[in-house]
Amino acid sequence: MEKQSKLLPDTGPVDDQGREILLELEHVDISFGKGSDQVRAVKDASFCIYKGETFSLVGESGSGKTTIGRAVIRVNPCSGGRILYKGVPISGKLSKGLERQVIRSIQMVFQDPAACLNERATVEYIISEGLYNFHLYENEADRRQKVEQIIRHVGLLPEHLTRYPHEFSGGQRQRIGLARAMVMRPELVIADEPISALDVSVRAQVLNLMKQFQQEQNVTYLFIAHDLSIVRFISDRIGVIYKGDIVEIAEAEELFAYPLHPYTRSLISAIPIPDPKLEKSKVLLTYDPAVHDYSREQPKLTDIGNGHLVFGSGEELRQYRAIREKNVPLKTVLFKTQEQQNVPEQRTGTVERQERSERPVYDTGSRWYTAGAFLLPPIGFIAGAVFRRFRYMRCYHACKRGAVAGLVTLGAIAGTFCAALLLSVL
């Protein structure tokens, strides 16, 4: 049994390149529910965050980004694996002294600036709450000075301290949330989509504030977002997550130049182009998990060189490595030709044609499936469930139609027989 440390060390472990590892996830699983209702939200997640960097975790809604962030601050328990902070496991039960250190060192800026602030408390109390709990001030004058200093730092005024959250705009509330976190002088800040609910101009101001704090206090960020166009310019490294699986990790420019995983390419292709004509002619790349065959070999996250980690089977990893070794940047933004733009049905059919081409070869939806399901409805429903499980949607619909029609027919025959039998008895 691993002996638990009572206090956090001054510095974390150092990797082969001399970088201090501040946070590390080792094969973390996070599940919700029990039994048949259990949902595995995060699957075997492994990555590390170095001291002083901005590590961005991107993916679509429901992919597990916030779940990982909440697990780091010990809100979501891990069902497998462990989380280490400065080399000390923090995902299990901690001693009181160690837990207080972790709470102070790791702060979070939440996505909704309205829901994360106590509407019945003044701004001064909201910012001072952490100072009160950890007694991070010498006297009342020192506390007041720290609060006024941090409120000015985020672009607000000392007279705002006596007001309540509902009296502020969304951008001002987010600044208050940022001030509440930074007044604790944390080493790691988890920013859970802190700018998604803000206007474009306010987004830039909040990002500049975060960058300023990072330069002045050497803060490390775990930045959770779904907009790759923003994280590209603020991140040192980017991790891409899809349905609980970390599918790709690389430095920001490396990821945009060589997006190897198909899901990463689909995210990059969805970035809007600030030119209506180009945006109209852009081809969206859609990601279909059916393109992967993991029936023979389970995929894993592997370093293929250049600090680039990709999730895939052995055959896929060999293909990714061959593409990367060519050292030729990949083209992820494609445009329709002039002839395609002039054909009306092709203007909206590009994504549909691509999806049709990615369907399984034998997904024909043959009438024989409908006929067989009509004669044997129970077997038809079972076959339909199997087809749906493996994404043979045309075959699934054929079995479903036949089975439903068969049940209706059998019901009609049984009803007629019972009626005739009842009349004969009477």
What brief labels describe this structure?
44% helix; Rossmann fold; 4 domains; alpha/beta; 426 residues; globular; 8-stranded mixed β-sheet
Please give a quick description of this structure:
Helix content is 44%, strand content 18%. With 426 residues, the chain is of the alpha/beta class. It has 4 domains: 21-258, Rossmann fold (3-Layer(aba) Sandwich), CATH 3.40.50; 266-291 and 328-358, no CATH class; 295-321, no CATH class; 367-414, no CATH class.
Question: Can you tell me about this structure?
Answer:
The structure is a single chain. The radius of gyration is 28 Å and the shape is globular. The chain folds into four domains: 21-258, Rossmann fold (3-Layer(aba) Sandwich), CATH 3.40.50; 266-291 and 328-358, no CATH class; 295-321, no CATH class; 367-414, no CATH class. It has 16 helices and 14 strands. The termini are far apart. The strands form three sheets. An eight-stranded mixed sheet has the order 6-7-8-3-9-10-13-12, with helices on both faces. A four-stranded antiparallel sheet has the order 2-1-4-5, with helices on one face. Strands 11-14 form a two-stranded antiparallel sheet. The longest helix is centred in the C-terminal third of the chain and has 33 residues, at 393-425. The protein is 44% helix and 18% strand. With 426 residues, the chain is an alpha/beta fold.
CATH superfamily of the largest domain: P-loop containing nucleotide triphosphate hydrolases
What is the CATH top level name of the largest domain? Alpha Beta
List the quaternary state of the chains.
single chain
Q: Overall mean pLDDT score? A: 87
Structural domain count: 4
Order of helices and strands: EEEHEEHEHHHEHEHEEHHHEEEHEHHHHH
With helices defined by DSSP (H or I, 4 residues minimum), what is the helix count?
Answer: 16
For the record, the CATH architecture of the largest domain stands as: 3-Layer(aba) Sandwich
